[in-house]
UniProtKB/TrEMBL annotation, chains A, B:
Pfam families: Orn_Arg_deC_N. GO terms for biological process: putrescine biosynthetic process from arginine, via ornithine. It comes from the Bacteria. It comes from Methylocystis echinoides. Residues 28-262 form the Orn/DAP/Arg decarboxylase 2 N-terminal domain. The keyword Lyase applies. Its cofactor is pyridoxal 5'-phosphate. Its EC number is 4.1.1.17. Keywords: Lyase, Pyridoxal phosphate. GO terms for molecular function: ornithine decarboxylase activity. Belongs to the Orn/Lys/Arg decarboxylase class-II family. This is ornithine decarboxylase.
Length: 381, 381
């Protein structure tokens, strides 16, 4: 909680506008985070993962600080250009692209594309000739609070063929990317993926193709309930792993922080709508229903993956275990049940709670009008 | 697939407007479904679950056919009134309501409210005096493809106290509701819940309080890949269970179909963005990426719960197992992986597929702008 957010919320209450849940994002925190990454990884370019929070104010700030951008779609490319980034600072980082979207991106000046198969390489060769491509490889996501599925990337042994195919089609086989899993709390996890990347560099060098870049992906955590290592520790561990696997011929590197850049800059204020019991048999277990849930901002509570810190005015007072659920008429809209959440006994219907670490992956995940509830209101300050 | 939907999609293609996924809903199918419910349960009032698809055209059609409406929020109440329903045909069916929303609903003329605890009864007594309330009870959801969580309802033994409390506070203790689970394919599942409801009627009668209504909830299935029993079979099974537990003093009854009313009226047209392999080790398994996924319409594929029929032009040709995923840069946006989906070998990048049974729980679940992708485009014809 920053002073600026606190003042903003107090003013909103005084004005009587605190009528529904809202997210407040403090740009000062994002500025600090950007500088933290730049200091921890001084030779690495930062490509902010726009999907984490594409608010124009966030993009403009980062553009002005010199950040590059990892985008998932043509609309994200357009938003990023509108915020002042030049096309040479934008990567089309989604491995799943319609050919006409690749063409449109090329028209907009984009020359850097992610791929993970020959089929995608062929699209790019047809409509974005001469562009740089990097191939995403699958890697072990253990140690991440949110290990990724196998949706993106190919087996490392396939990547050589994919990049060679790109080279043959006149594209620039530029490098390798991977993602060690979202909210990765173990800085050593980059090591294994960097070993695979170095192997691919060598294999291609033997075929006369010189790769230049390793995209270290995202995965940098934000603090939720548990402490996470400082970004400096990630920088050190990554530098050690790079030196170990690439020796003194270090490649260009980029990172794609999303959560790590904006997560701790945001705070949601929500309201307790109902506190009740389901049955006498459940003892002291209470159900606490908030006016925010899985469908209007907190989608990342799916499978109880992300456990947000929830602050109340009564913090410090005795607690009881609570199931926490959202306001919708949808049975899956339960935030924490498998592992109930301790909240103060004195918590009352109608009081406000603060949900920390909600600057990333909340606003645009919000449903358009699920159950009639409006999308999450957002203020960037 | 109806002829009207087929013609609409053909026309859209001819006009070159088939640029992204879209849902087409055929009102004729909804009209038939409404009549089917009315015939199968002639003494039961239909309260359409607005959340399933709140398109104004859908609400207007149902209002004109005489339907009542189950709403989840004040915006849904306002949408329903705007579509021509009178307040006496609207239930505020969400058990989780802000007191100021109850007050606003009362102002709009709503006099029928769901509750599942004394705390909610007290809100209603304060700001919606004299209204009718029904208490939702928990019941066994076995047999449902989507069993509900314990989010809504209280243990049947608590319901008596909740309704007695309502009576004491000057509200009309009106009845009992339950939900046997979404996409419930066993018509006999209403029996157990109706036994609990009859017990509550008796307990309250002994205390001098006469309940009048049983809300049989939703759960009526729509056809996805497997056939489901006809609505007539539900009508028969429910009538038998009502007679068994209530004898010749049958209560008023209402049903709240959502999926069963609009599910089969809608069809999504989507496009194959990419087909690839992850590794040689996976044999013939392919990954098929569509331009629609969990975040722009198909949220109900969560945990692979709803398995939509996917039609392609090559249906009937030899198939291979496929993992199906959405277009976003989000690792959880995978539709079917645990149990891969058989799709024709000849399926190609760029071809269209049709996803059936998508009239319910698609449009408003769609995210506002996740990964820059727009919400699901919808046409009501």
């Amino acid at each position: 909680m920053t002073d600026r957010i606190q003042e903003f919320l107090a003013e909103r209450r005084r004005a009587g506008r605190d009528n529904g849940p809202c997210l407040v994002v403090d740009l000062d925190v994002i500025r600090e985070n950007y500088r933290g990454f730049a200091r921890a990884l001084p030779d690495t370019r930062v490509f902010y993962a726009v999907k984490a929070n594409p608010a124009p104010e966030v993009l403009s700030l980062l553009a002005s600080l010199g950040s590059c951008f990892d985008t998932a779609s043509v609309p994200e490319i357009e938003q990023t250009l509108a915020a002042g980034a030049t096309p040479d600072r934008i990567s089309f980082g989604n491995t799943i692209k319609k050919e006409r979207d690749v063409a449109r991106a090329y028209e907009l000046g984009i020359r850097l594309f992610a791929v993970d198969c020959v089929e995608e390489v062929e699209k790019i060769a047809r409509v974005a000739p001469g562009s740089k491509v990097f191939c995403r490889i699958l890697c072990d996501g253990s140690g991440a609070e949110w290990p990724l599925s196998r949706k993106f990337g190919c087996a490392p042994e396939m990547a050589t063929g994919v990049l060679e195919h790109a080279h043959r089609l006149g594209l620039q086989a530029y490098g390798v990317s991977f993602h060690v899993g979202s909210q990765q709390t173990d800085p050593r996890k980059w090591d294994g993926a960097l070993k695979s990347a170095a192997d691919i560099f060598r294999d291609l060098a033997e075929r006369g193709i010189t790769l230049q870049m390793v995209n270290l992906g995202g995965g940098f955590p934000t603090k939720y309930l548990k402490n996470v290592p400082a970004v400096k520790q990630y920088g050190n561990a990554i530098f050690r792993a790079l030196s170990k696997h690439f020796g003194n011929r270090l490649p260009e590197t980029i990172i794609e922080p999303g959560r790590g850049m904006v997560g701790n800059a945001g705070m949601i204020e929500a309201e307790v709508v109902l506190i009740s019991k389901k049955s006498e048999a459940e003892g002291e277990l209470r159900w606490v229903y908030l006016d925010i849930g899985k469908f209007n901002g907190l989608a990342e509570t799916i499978d109880e993956m992300i456990r947000y810190p929830i602050r109340t005015e009564a913090d410090g007072a005795p607690t009881t275990p609570c199931v926490i659920a959202g306001p919708s008429c949808d049975s899956v809209d339960v935030l924490y049940e498998k592992k109930p959440y301790e909240l103060p006994i004195s918590l009352e219907i109608g009081t406000k709670v603060l949900i920390e670490g909600t600057g990333a992956y909340t606003t645009t995940y919000s449903a358009v009008g699920f159950n009639g509830f409006p999308p999450l209101e957002t203020f960037i300050i």
